[in-house]
Amino acid sequence: MLCPACGVQAVADGRQQRLLHDIGVFGVPVLLVWSRRTWRCRQHSCPQVSWGEETQLAPPLPSTSRPEPSPGL
Predict the structure, then answer these.
(1) pLDDT tens string for the chain (73 positions)?
(2) CA distance 60 to 54
(3) Bridge-based pairing state of the strands 50-52 and 28-41
(4) What is the pTM (predicted TM-score) of this model?
(5) How far apart are CA 50 and CA 24, in angstroms?
(6) What angle do CA 44, 3, 8 make, to 5 degrees?
(7) Are 25 and 68 within 8 A, CB to CB?
(8) CA–CA distance, 2 with 11 (Å, rounded to integer)
(9) Disulfide check for 46: which of 6, 20, 53, 61 has CB 3.0–4.6 Å away?
(10) Closest by alpha carbon to 48, among 12, 2, 4, 17?
(11) 38 neighbors 14 (Cβ within 8 angstroms)
(12) In what order do the strands lie in the sheet with 50-52?
């Protein structure tokens, strides 16, 4: 696997489990989990530090951000 930003050979950096679908079959709940491989760039100056495998069956999760704390809290 090559880094998508700089093209340097990447290093496997573990796996993350990701829930793809929560579906039922004949009334029995089924849980489908994808063990997604994560990668890390070897180039220290590369802006792409790490990334994970992607598939059309599991589009990237939306980014979330925390609201700024209110003054005085």
Answers:
(1) 899 999 999 999 999 998 877 667 888 887 788 899 999 999 999 999 999 888 777 766 666 655 666 666 5
(2) 7
(3) antiparallel
(4) 0.64
(5) 34
(6) 65
(7) no
(8) 9
(9) 6
(10) 4
(11) yes
(12) 10-25, 28-41, 50-52
Residue with tokens 């992607």: 54
Q: How many CB atoms lie within 10 A of CB 41?
A: 24
Using the structure block, give the residue that is written with the tokens 């063990």: 35
Record the tokens describing residue 42, joined without a space: 């070897």
Length, in residues, of the chain: 73
C-alpha–C-alpha distance, residues 41 and 71, integer Å? 39
Q: Quick one: tokens of 58?
A: 């599991």
Tokens representing 39 are: 């990668």
